[in-house]
C-alpha cells in the first residue's frame, strides 16, 4: 500500500511557539500582559507519512485531536470577468450595499488574513499596509513569499482592505493596516489541504481577527488521483468520500482551536466561500449545497447576491444563479470591481467576491467592539450575524439561498 501524507493535529502541552512552515507548527495558548487568557491546550500540527491502514490506530492515540490525508484543494474560480468601468468613481456597489461607505469604522487596528493565491504587493490599493506574506504551496517558495501569479488573491484582498484606486473606493475596510497573506494556491489554482491547514494555523497564531478563504475541496480531482493510482472508479469514489469526511473533521477541529486560541482578546472568525456550482439560470432547481471547507463546523459560509433590474445597491438584490445554497450569510458577488494583478482594476463575479465583502464587514465590527471594550468570541460573531438583513433582497427570495441575509457595516 502506498504511503500518504497525513495532517495530524496533536495535543502538545508546554511547547514553545514556532511560526515556521516546516513539518511541525506549534500552537501555544495565547498570552496577554503576562497572563494566560485562554485554557486551550497547546496543539501541534504535523505532517506524517503513513500507510492509510495505520489511521484507525493513530486516531486512538490520546494526544491526537484529528487526522486526515492531504487532499487536493482548488480555487473557487470567478464565473465571469469583465473590464472595470474607467469612468466610475466613489464606492463600488458592493461597498454601498453593505453600507461600509457610511460606517464610522474603517478597520483600523484589526488584523485580517487572506488565504488565497497571494497578492500583488506593489498595487497602489495596498499602499501603507503591512503585508506579512508566506508561501504555503507544496512547491515551497520564499519564506516571505506570497506573490500572486493568478490574480484572484489580489482581487479578494482589494475588496477587504484596498485603498481607493483612481477615485473609486474598492475596500470595505480600508483602514486595515496589517494583513497576513498566505499563498495556499498556485498559479494553476491548485493546492492541498495540508498547505491550507498550515496557513490557517499560522494566521491564527499571528493574531488574525478575520480569515477570508475563497477556496474549496477538489473532490473530482481527488477521485481522479485515486483512479490514477490504480483503484477502480467505485473504490476510488468510496475512498475519496472517507478522505473528504476526514478533512471536514480536521477543519472543524482547526476552527474550534481558532475560536479558543485567542480567547476574548483576539477571537478569530473563519469566513469561506459557499461555492459556484449551482446553475439556476438553466433550471431553478439546479442548486448545489455549500462546498467544503465552508461547510465545516465553525466556518461562516458566504453566498453571493447581485444587483437587480433597477441597479440599486439597497433594493431588489437577487441571488446569483451560480451561488450554492445553504450559506450562513450573503455578500455582493456579481460584477465586483477590485484590484487587478499588475495594476488597475477588474470586475469578477463569484462567491469568492462575496466572501471578502463579509470579511471586510467583520473587520469593521471587530474595530467597533474593540473601541467599545466589548470584543469577545461571542460578541463579534453575534454582531456580524445580527447585522444581516434580507430587506435589500428581492421579494420572495429563498431564505436557504441567502442565509441570514446581506451583512451590514456598523453605523
From TrEMBL:
It comes from the Bacteria. The keyword DNA damage does not apply. Keywords: Hydrolase, Protease, Serine protease. Pfam families: Peptidase_S8. InterPro entries: Peptidase_S8/S53_dom, Peptidase_S8/S53_dom_sf, Peptidase_S8_Asp-AS, Peptidase_S8_Ser-AS, Peptidase_S8_subtilisin-like, Peptidase_S8_subtilisin-rel. PROSITE patterns: SUBTILASE (PS51892), SUBTILASE_ASP (PS00136), SUBTILASE_SER (PS00138). The active site is at 116 (charge relay system), 152 (charge relay system), 352 (charge relay system). SUPFAM superfamilies: Subtilisin-like (SSF52743). Belongs to the peptidase S8 family. This is S8 family serine peptidase.
Amino acid at each position: 500500500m502506498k504511503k500518504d501524507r497525513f495532517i495530524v493535529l496533536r495535543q502538545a502541552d508546554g511547547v514553545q511557539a514556532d511560526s515556521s512552515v516546516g513539518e511541525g507548527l506549534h500552537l501555544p495558548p495565547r498570552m496577554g500582559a503576562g497572563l494566560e487568557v485562554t485554557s486551550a491546550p497547546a496543539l501541534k500540527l504535523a505532517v506524517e507519512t503513513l500507510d492509510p491502514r495505520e489511521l484507525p490506530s493513530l486516531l486512538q492515540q490520546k494526544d491526537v485531536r484529528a487526522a486526515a490525508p492531504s487532499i487536493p484543494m482548488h480555487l473557487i474560480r470567478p464565473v465571469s470577468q469583465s473590464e472595470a468601468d474607467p469612468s466610475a468613481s466613489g464606492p463600488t456597489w458592493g461597498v454601498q450595499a453593505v453600507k461600509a461607505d457610511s460606517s464610522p469604522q474603517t478597520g483600523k487596528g484589526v488584523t485580517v488574513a487572506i488565504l488565497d493565491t497571494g497578492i500583488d504587493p506593489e498595487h497602489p490599493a495596498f499602499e501603507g499596509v503591512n503585508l506579512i506574506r508566506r508561501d504555503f504551496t507544496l512547491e515551497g517558495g520564499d519564506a516571505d513569499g506570497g506573490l500572486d501569479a493568478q490574480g484572484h488573491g489580489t482581487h479578494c484582498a482589494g475588496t477587504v482592505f484596498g485603498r481607493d484606486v483612481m477615485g473609486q473606493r474598492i475596500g470595505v475596510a480600508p483602514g486595515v493596516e496589517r494583513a497576513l497573506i498566505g499563498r495556499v494556491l498556485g498559479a494553476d489554482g491548485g493546492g492541498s489541504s495540508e498547505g491550507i491547514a498550515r496557513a490557517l494555523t499560522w494566521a491564527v497564531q499571528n493574531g488574525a481577527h478575520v480569515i477570508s478563504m475563497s477556496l474549496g475541496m477538489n473532490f473530482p480531482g481527488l477521485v481522479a488521483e485515486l483512479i490514477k493510482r490504480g483503484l477502480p472508479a467505485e473504490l476510488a469514489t468510496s475512498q475519496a468520500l472517507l478522505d473528504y469526511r476526514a478533512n471536514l473533521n480536521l477543519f472543524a477541529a482547526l476552527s474550534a482551536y481558532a475560536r479558543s486560541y485567542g480567547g476574548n482578546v483576539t477571537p478569530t472568525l473563519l469566513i469561506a466561500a459557499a461555492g459556484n456550482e449551482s446553475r439556476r439560470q438553466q433550471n431553478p432547481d439546479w442548486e448545489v449545497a455549500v462546498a467544503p471547507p465552508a461547510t465545516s463546523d465553525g466556518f461562516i459560509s458566504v453566498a453571493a447576491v447581485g444587483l437587480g433590474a433597477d441597479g440599486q445597491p439597497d433594493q431588489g438584490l437577487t441571488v446569483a444563479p451560480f451561488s450554492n445554497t445553504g450559506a450562513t450569510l450573503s455578500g455582493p458577488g456579481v460584477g465586483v470591481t477590485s484590484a487587478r494583478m499588475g495594476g488597475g482594476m477588474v470586475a469578477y463575479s463569484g462567491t469568492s467576491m462575496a466572501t471578502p465583502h463579509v470579511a471586510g464587514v467583520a473587520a469593521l465590527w471587530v474595530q467597533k467592539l474593540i473601541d467599545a471594550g466589548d470584543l469577545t468570541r461571542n460578541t463579534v460573531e453575534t454582531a456580524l450575524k445580527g447585522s444581516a438583513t434580507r430587506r435589500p433582497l428581492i421579494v420572495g427570495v429563498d431564505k436557504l439561498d441567502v442565509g441570514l441575509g446581506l451583512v451590514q457595516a456598523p453605523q
